[in-house]
Write a structure and sequence with these properties.
By secondary structure, the chain is α+β, with helices and mostly antiparallel strands. It contains twelve helices and twelve strands. The strands form two sheets. Strands 6, 7, 8, 9, 10, 11 and 12 form a seven-stranded antiparallel β-sheet that branches. Strand 9 and strand 10 form a beta hairpin. Helix 8 crosses helix 9 and helix 9 runs antiparallel to helix 10. The chain is elongated and about 75 Å long.
């Protein structure tokens, strides 16, 4: 990849990194369920096409999922207390689901059930998802180190064509931005993937984030064959590149020329929309006063993204601030006309519906 000079270095996509991402995934196996029963605090599973039964401990995620699936309030279980009564309660609710129980696929790790997904879910190695996405970006690298958290991987992909220099003589500034397509993927089928566009501003290390109409919906990804799913990842990454080049970059240029009549009111309104506490709103106002960008929309967007980098910013507010910055940028015309800023609902990522999932919904 070309030398990005002052920019933080990108990360090459190497076999070693892909192996690391696959490492957590390979600890899990997937067991199609024919029948289940509850016994002495454990779950007993009979797999499909087998008469062998095996006991497993259930991790909290699995307990919560199964209880919701069979309609058993866990608060009621806690109130019962007596182990024998709890066993009867669980099995009574499991029996009420009848044959519907075979829609479930157990996520197994050793002697534990880590969670459940649905039978139409096809496991995908994280490396396969990365490789599918990188097909859409020339000379592709990770924008930053990918990470594994919980049962998900998160990575951002970039390339030489996704770097832009913004020169504005009125503001007297030259800002370097590197853009990337960010992907979060739950590899055990307990959540749908999300894909969006990131902008990384070199001057202060800020990130803005914007979805672009390919958000997820639970279980929709589980309804396609693996090859189709990977092809969709490639296509959605390509859409991300087009969104960055055709929308995000031009909008940033435009926000450098667009002014806001009442900055304090706009900051308060957006903070309220995103449910940000007063302490975080204060960080945004402080960030706004940190640099002089001419009271432009660009100025305000950077105040939100800069606040996300503040040591006093609570972790749960970081993504909200980054998304607010992206939303301000992509829909800046709404600020000028006084229209409420807000994204339309994202289109479905995968729109097929599996017969199994419909039958048992």
């Amino acid at each position: 990849m070309q030398n990005l000079n002052e920019m933080e270095p990108t990360v090459a996509i190497t076999p070693e990194i892909l192996d690391r991402l696959d490492g957590e995934f390979l600890q899990y196996s997937f067991l199609q369920i024919h029948d289940i029963a509850y016994s002495d605090g454990k779950i007993v599973i009979t797999p499909e096409n087998s008469t062998a039964r095996r006991e497993y401990q259930m991790e909290p995620d699995a307990v919560e999922y199964l209880a919701k699936f069979v309609g058993l309030p866990l608060t009621y279980v806690a109130d019962v207390g007596d182990p024998a009564a709890v066993t009867m309660l669980w099995n009574d609710h499991i029996r009420k689901r009848g044959q519907d129980i075979d829609v479930l696929k157990a996520v197994v790790r050793g002697e534990h059930i880590s969670g459940f997904t649905v039978r139409s879910f096809h496991p995908l190695r994280p490396s396969a998802v990365v490789n599918a996405c990188r097909e859409a970006i020339a000379e592709c690298e990770f924008e930053r180190q990918p990470c594994v958290h919980g049962k998900s991987i998160e990575f951002a992909l970039t390339g030489p064509d996704l770097r832009e220099d913004f020169v504005n003589t009125t503001l007297g500034t030259t800002d370097i931005h590197r853009f990337s397509v960010g992907v979060e993927f739950n590899y055990v089928g307990q959540a749908s993937p999300t894909i969006g566009a990131y902008g990384h501003r070199h001057t202060c290390g800020n990130f803005m984030y914007s979805p672009y109409g390919v958000g997820g919906k639970p279980f929709q990804i589980f309804t396609s064959e693996p090859g189709q799913v990977l092809a969709r990842f490639t296509e959605c990454t390509r859409q991300g590149v087009e969104f960055i080049q055709g929308t995000m970059i031009p909008k940033i240029r435009a926000t450098m020329e667009a002014h806001i009549p009442d900055v304090a009111m706009e900051i308060a309104g957006i903070a309220k929309k995103y449910g940000l506490p007063e302490s975080v709103e204060t960080l945004v106002s402080e960030a706004y006063r940190t640099e002089n960008l001419g009271d432009t929309v660009y100025h305000m967007a950077n105040a939100f993204s800069r606040a996300a980098n503040n040591d006093r910013c609570p972790p749960q507010a970081v993504r909200k601030l980054q998304r607010a910055a992206g939303e301000i940028t992509v829909r800046y015309e709404a600020l000028e006309t006084g229209t409420e800023v807000g994204f339309e609902e994202a289109e479905l990522f995968f729109d097929e519906t599996a017969d199994d999932d419909v039958k048992h919904s």
